[in-house]
Design brief:
- It comes from Polaribacter butkevichii.
- This protein is about 55% helix and about 5% strand.
């Protein structure tokens, strides 16, 4: 459902958040390795997230990426919007160009419900809440 950019972006944000909660900054290479993403691709994603103030980049020998405490309340929908725009909420489930309520594909009405549920979940889920769930459940980001 998400683009690779968005998948890696969400993984990166969650990894950085996890490290930030322990007051650690993490390097680009560590992030790339931990989320199993090509380093150049990860750099471009983190550049977008830094530009949009989701993550903070600190330069220098003790630098790295971090997420400030107040940014932990950022909703996942904001991250998806930064990386993928709103295409996930409006696209056809089969990828057809002409698909709407007037000219639906075979999955249209079922997919509308799925998209609405996804949008609701993303708009109501913060980085902090996912971080709490990860801690409780012992999730691993690397796949």
């Amino acid at each position: 459902m998400f683009s690779k950019t968005c998948e890696y972006g969400l993984r990166a944000v969650l990894f950085i958040a996890e490290q930030s909660s322990d007051n650690k900054k993490v390097s680009m290479s560590t992030i790339s390795q931990e989320i199993n993403s090509p380093q150049a691709f990860t750099a471009k994603i983190l550049q977008q997230l830094t530009r949009n103030k989701v993550v903070k980049s600190v330069k220098g020998p003790y630098g790295g990426f971090t997420i400030e405490a107040e940014k932990m309340d950022t909703k996942l929908s904001e991250i998806v919007s930064i990386l993928d725009g709103d295409a996930i909420y409006v696209g056809c489930g089969l990828g057809l160009k002409q698909c709407d309520a007037n000219s639906p594909c075979p999955l249209h009405f079922k997919f509308v419900d799925i998209r609405n549920n996804l949008k609701n979940m993303l708009e109501n889920t913060s980085i902090k809440s996912i971080l709490n769930d990860m801690t409780l459940e012992g999730f691993i980001l690397k796949r």
